[in-house]
Amino acid sequence: MHDIDALSLREMADLQRRGRLASRDLAEHYLARIAERNPRLNAIIEQTPPERLLAEAGAADAALRRGRLLGPLHGVPLSL
């Protein structure tokens, strides 16, 4: 298992491309972190609905399994 919070974006992307970390795992991890910390921090103003985010992460995983990479951050969750 990986300490997701210690990984850089590049490390996350590399682990995903090598099939050692799933986009869905990242999405679930960060959804839990947001739920835990955002009530106190109020840093996330608008969020993709969790069901949609998990579906998109699953689609990213499926694309990678088919050998389809859609850019250097394919499947890596980001917040702006």
The total of helices stands at 3
Which series of helices and strands comes N to C? HHH
Q: What is the rounded distance between the termini? A: 27 Å
Mean pLDDT: 94
Give the beta-strand count.
0
Give the radius of gyration. Answer: 13 Å
Molecular shape: globular
Strand count, sense and barrel status of the largest sheet are:
none
Level of helix content?
55-70%
Strand proportion: under 5%
What are the low-pLDDT stretches, counting only 5+ consecutive residues below 50?
A: none
Task: Give a verbal description of the structure.
This protein is an all-alpha fold. The chain has a domain at 22-68. 55% of the residues lie in helices and 0% in strands. The chain has helices spanning 9-17, 23-41, 50-65. Helix 2 (23-41) runs antiparallel to helix 3 (50-65). The longest helix is centred in the middle third of the chain and has 19 residues, at 23-41. The chain is globular. The N and C termini lie far apart (27 Å). The relative contact order is 0.20. The mean pLDDT is 94.
